[in-house]
Amino acid sequence: MKKKISIVIFISAVVLTVRFFCGVYEHDEFAETNFFIKHRPTWKWKFYSPIGMSDKKIEKLSKEEQTEQKYFNEFVRDQGLSR
Prior knowledge:
About 40% of the residues lie in helices and about 15% in strands. The chain has two helices and three strands; from the N terminus they run αβββα. By secondary structure, it is α+β, with helices and mostly antiparallel strands.
């Protein structure tokens, strides 16, 4: 019984670690989905750019899209992943 509890706790810890430190992003030009390691923990899993490769400015986006673009910039673009 103790061994089963230890296994469940270990698996839960691994799943939470992967959830916090890994993610996927949709490339803003080629629409490919890529797996990556995050530079800091966050619950967010999927990242995409509402602007994409268009000439839109971040000020023209809705509040939700602005937040999504900021996450994409911090975790993907600023880390050199979507080039």
